[in-house]
Design brief:
Elements: H1 5-15, E1 19-23, H2 30-40, E2 44-48, H3 50-56, H4 58-71, E3 76-83, H5 86-95, E4 99-102, H6 109-125, E5 129-134, E6 138-141, E7 144-146, H7 154-163, E8 168-171, E9 176-177, H8 188-197, E10 202-204, H9 215-220, E11 223-228, H10 230-245, H11 253-277
Parallel strand pairs: 1-2, 1-11, 2-3, 3-4, 4-5, 5-8, 6-9, 8-10, 10-11
Antiparallel strand pairs: 6-7
Helix pairs in contact: 2-11, 7-8, 10-11
Amino acid sequence: MYVSMTPLLAEATRVGYTVGAFNAHNLEMVPPMIRAARDLGAPIIIQTSPGTARYVGMRNFVAVCRSMASDEIVDVALHLDHATNLTDIRDAIEAGYSSVMFDGSQLPFTRNVATSRRVIEYARDHGASVETEIGTIGGTEEGIRNKVGVYTQPEEAVRLLQEVDTDALAVSIGTNHGQFKAKTRLDLDLLSRIHRAVDVPLVIHGGTGVDEADYPQLTADGIRKFNVGTELLVGWTRTAQERFAATKVNSSLRNNIVPCNDVVHDIVAHKISLFMGADRSQ
């Protein structure tokens, strides 16, 4: 079914696993992502940046996700990632996106609260879920730039959630957007303290830079949505470079694109298998 994040994260919380959220950098990536989730009998969150959503067309993303969610018998949410502009959020929801993220992490606390509440009210009226953020993620992603991330503090998360009825909360514990050449060192003790302090599904951004050995602990400490973007982009682009460099100019594009999509399928399937099968201590 085509759904919001709310039922996906509720089931993940009840059973004890993490839902993979994968950034589509073009429309070509979406079918292999959804088929990978289908192959594993798992739910999936497809994400787009506002820029990618505008480039492809929001309604085009919605149409593909809706159709495949029905045809492939898999639960799919379509999520607008790191939106800071309310017009982008409105347009995505009106186009049929089932979920949005309002990133007010770089705003003063009071503005983050006030704007988050407006977004949540609008989204709920249209059946969409909302992710918010407290603390900032380091690195660069689609115009969101932070040289150094500001870690989320448990008391800040509690304070935000006293004012904002969000469906998911993105937290900063050491990850960085765009990191793929090395693995980050997470503050797992901080995550544990945040998890004990709040009762809401938690979200990891900058997931490509996270060591897979840390996945079980992340799941145990409340991470219910795990974002993967850079690894998909790098894998697709590297394969495209190799294929196009070795192909005649009059060869069908399909001969080059399908191998790129196969890489996306395999990455998504691998990640989902870990998110669904990680050892859980609670």
